[in-house]
Design goal:
Elements lengths: L2 H9 L12 H18 L4 H8 L3 H11 L3 H12 L19
Helix pairs in contact: 2-5, 3-5
């Protein structure tokens, strides 16, 4: 549908399209994936990424209060390892940019 199609629907009494569904869990996983990708693009080792994550005491404190652990750090490190970063990944396009992933 073209951008003008939404305006037409509103003018016809159809109302605006429904907003997306907010999914906090999905958002947390996406944010962890992005953090892992950025760490890799900056050339950080796993140890350096751990150090950077440890420099966010407020995030650590809020995670501990809500989840009983530093969940953000765990999720970012899992995403980092899950993509093969820090394990001698030789893929010329490790984040899938050229493949459209």
């Amino acid at each position: 549908m073209r951008a003008g199609g939404h305006l037409w629907r509103i003018q016809q009494g159809g109302g605006p399209p429904a907003p997306f569904t907010w999914d906090e869990e999905r958002r947390a996983h996406l944010r962890a994936e992005l953090d892992a990708i950025y760490a890799h693009l900056y050339g950080l080792t796993r140890e350096e990424l751990e150090y950077v994550l440890d420099t966010f005491p407020i995030v650590r404190r809020k995670d501990a209060a809500k989840w009983g652990e530093y969940r953000t750090k765990r999720m970012v490190l899992e995403a980092y390892a899950g993509r093969g970063f820090g394990h001698g990944c030789t893929d010329s396009d490790p984040v899938g940019v050229q493949r459209g992933e």
